[in-house]
UniProtKB/TrEMBL annotation, chains A, B:
This is Bifunctional chorismate mutase/prephenate dehydratase. Its EC number is 4.2.1.51, 5.4.99.5. It catalyses: prephenate + H(+) = 3-phenylpyruvate + CO2 + H2O; chorismate = prephenate. The record marks T266 as: Essential for prephenate dehydratase activity. Residues 96-273 form the Prephenate dehydratase domain. It comes from Pontibacterium sinense. One of its GO terms (molecular function) is prephenate dehydratase activity. One of its GO terms (cellular component) is cytoplasm. PROSITE patterns: ACT, CHORISMATE_MUT_2, PREPHENATE_DEHYDR_3. Its main location: cytoplasm.
Length: 363, 363
């Protein structure tokens, strides 16, 4: 046996012995999780027991990242613990998670990222199907897109929060990439126009300035629409869109990841039937409407400024009878200052719906 | 504090303490993996060092499943260890894995399942691009589809093994599902014909007999083609295909998972530039050609029967000059009996190419 083989043999024995210890601890953890389920069932009716606690999971992950000393990177360890919690939870209670299908979409990726591989994920054909399954209790949780870096907020999802009684239990973020698409066998040199949603044109400006400085930039309603325009086109148009659109319309990906900020993210919401307790670092989402009079939005936002609560997103939806606003802000509805703002809002608004407080995305 | 809260508090403290131990062990394991890399680099040139050892990984996973006493299910623990090895390997050497894109396809799922989330996965536009990237060393490994339950073997992939010098380093299996697809807002009651690849028609026979007994069944070249036929159709046709096709052609999924055997699986190969040592439970793939004379296949298969080596797949490809066979069988090329068969084959065949010996899929 060579020196190398000897040294490797020693290290591999160490690894095997570590693996055995990890293995034992994983099963110990799983049996603790089973006991947690038993205790809950002893004191509560089976239908009242909440097995999945997003706030506790977020706390565990944050603690893992805080105490991590390496050599494993913080995010990798946290991801491993997410999977550990996922398999333990599946033992307590198999989770059924509905998502906007089909399988293989980014929404499924988001569901997997949040619930781990041990949850049963069920693809549904529309966001309203997801809301309906969650409201009826057929699915424990649902995952729906809410923000998309190229199309902005997903308005359809917003509108459904008015129609269904589900609460937001969490958020998930995924990185997104934008590509330059050409029709099949197209030549980049012939491109005279680049079409895309205006946000994507803006996000890829530096790349376009360098590589296609003479091409006209044309904003269209969505990147999907931009990709569709290439079908049957004469080869002088390029589109900016993601992998899905390239596949859908059988386009060539002439250049990958042309966005200036490579950390573009898209956001998904976890919906459920449960009020999530504070995890310490939370967000709250509300729908609030007012008569359409001058200064309405200012009146609604002023309490946030006055109480120094950071807004993370404000969306305006025009409606027949006035305006509706979707507002995300930092903090939990059980925090004193948030409670105060919500009470003030209830007075000045026509309608106020608390969609949920939930842990800010950890990973 | 209620009794329930007290009992839960105790269990949660136990879980937190177990988590701390697991966390510490994970980092110890990672640092052992780093030392393995250092030892290899001390004795070998950087370009000669092989960091990823599929046979060792398969052995670790099999051992985990064998010694597992629960309560975690064998497969769940093995999956956790796959991820643990993935993050440790990423520390030794960040892996670049090319796959047949785009992102979100089953091939990417296969790549993730095999290499874990810590590998960098690179979507490419064709199987030959994947082979080229691997042969040139731009990617460490490639993942390509080889068998697809609805279309059988992927002939294109087979043919590329003749053109490129890459070896098979592993296999991955994924479950697949088939759906009944209708054009948008179509009505199942109006369906007079069901189109699909003949294998899919066969795989869904029981469901079709029960739910669409009067519909004519028409075999077409692929399920993708079947789905395409629905575009612009009059609503009397239904297709059988998977999620991807439904999305690609914007069809309604009228019924999910209609296959009679719900454990249909599709198979992918891992290609690389490395000879994988025996893991104990292995498969070997070869390409072998003979002059097109009567009894050619019998002559090629006879040594396997005589040496009691199980064949897992035989595919025939007609070529200008004769016939080529793709043969998968159990065993490793370093096994005495396999070596013997390969020597015999070399004599009776015109050309024999060992594509690789690799661990049988563990999960």
């Amino acid at each position: 046996m060579s020196d190398q083989e000897k040294e490797l043999g020693v290290l591999r024995q160490q690894i095997d012995s570590i693996d055995k210890q990890i293995h034992e601890l994983l099963n110990q953890r799983a049996s603790c999780a089973q006991q947690v389920a038993e205790v809950k069932l002893k004191y509560q009716g089976a239908s009242d027991v909440v097995f999945y606690r997003p706030e506790r999971e977020a706390q565990v992950l944050r603690r893992v990242m805080e105490r991590n000393e390496g050599p494993l990177p913080d995010k990798d360890v946290a991801r491993l613990f997410r999977e550990v919690m996922s398999v333990c939870l599946a033992l307590e209670k198999p989770m059924r998670v509905a998502f906007l299908g089909p399988a293989g979409t980014f929404t499924q990726q988001a569901a997997l990222k949040h619930f781990g591989l041990s949850a049963e994920s069920v693809p549904l054909n529309s966001v309203s199907d997801v809301f309906r399954e969650v409201q009826s209790g057929n699915a424990h949780y649902g995952v729906v897109p809410i923000e998309n870096s190229s199309e902005g907020i997903v308005n359809h999802t917003l509108d459904l929060f008015k129609r269904y009684d589900v609460t937001i239990c969490g958020e998930v973020e995924l990185p997104v990439h934008q590509h330059l698409l050409l029709k099949q066998d197209g030549d980049r040199k012939e491109v005279k126009r680049v079409v895309a949603h205006h946000q994507s044109l803006a996000q890829c400006r530096a790349w376009l300035d360098t590589h296609l400085p003479d091409a006209e930039r044309v904003a269209v309603s969505s990147n999907g629409e931009a990709a569709r325009m290439l079908v049957g086109s004469d080869g002088t148009i390029a589109a900016i869109a993601g992998d899905m659109a390239a596949e859908l319309y059988e386009l060539d990906i002439a250049e990958r990841n042309i966005e200036d900020q490579p950390d573009n993210r898209t956001r998904f919401l976890i919906v459920g039937n449960q009020v999530v307790e504070s995890s310490g670092v939370d967000k709250t989402s509300i729908l609030v409407s007012s008569k359409n009079k001058p200064g309405a939005l200012y009146q609604l936002l002023e309490p946030f400024y006055r109480n120094q609560i950071s807004l993370t997103r404000v969306e305006t939806r025009s409606m027949n009878s006035g305006c509706m606003f979707y507002i995300d802000f930092e903090g939990h509805s059980s925090d004193t200052d948030v409670e105060k703002v919500l009470n003030e809002l209830a007075v000045v608004s026509e309608e106020l719906k608390l969609l949920g407080s939930y842990p800010s995305a950890v990973l």
